[in-house]
Amino acid sequence: MISPQGEKTMLSCRLEFECTNNTAEYEALVQGLYKAIGLKVQYLKVFGDSEIIVKQVRNAIHCLSSHLKHYQSLVQERTSHFSAFNISSIPRSQNSAADLPANVASKLLPSEDYSP
């Protein structure tokens, strides 16, 4: 992500609950939107490798799961903070830089000291 001052910003988070791939994709999107809002970004273009999520955010397909509808609504509310927002789909093969850390992190076990 690039801030209004031109600075690159990385964001990482770890989900401490079991979830589907679609939930994880929505969580990543929501966390990125929160960060962009905090940085006062006005124009945001997002690239996602989950075609389903991209199409749901664009309202190109219906979201059947009530759980995912909540995420869809949250994303729509957050995107209203931007002057311009666009989300595009990219093939997973072109998103290996983002997938590698996510795949490594998904194999890690929570610390024994962790208490939710």
Can you give the helix content as a percent range? Answer: 40-55%
Main sheet summary: 2 strands, parallel
Helix and strand string, N-terminal first? HEHHEH
Major sheet strand order? 1-2
| End-to-end separation | 29 Å
Helical segment count: 4
Radius of gyration, whole Å: 15 Å
Strand content: 5-15%
Uncertain regions spanning at least 5 consecutive residues: none
Q: What can you see in these coordinates?
A:
With 116 residues, this protein is mainly α. 43% of the residues lie in helices and 10% in strands. It contains four helices and two strands; from the N terminus they run αβααβα. The chain has a two-stranded parallel ribbon with strand order 1-2. Helix 1 runs parallel beside helix 3. The radius of gyration is 15 Å and the shape is globular. The protein starts with 20 loop residues before the first helix and ends in a 10-residue tail after the last helix. The model has no long low-confidence stretch (mean pLDDT 77).
Chain-wise SSE layout:
Blueprint (H helix, E strand, L loop, with lengths): L20 H18 L4 E6 L2 H7 L8 H14 L4 E6 L6 H11 L10
Parallel strand pairs: 1-2
Helix pairs in contact: 1-3
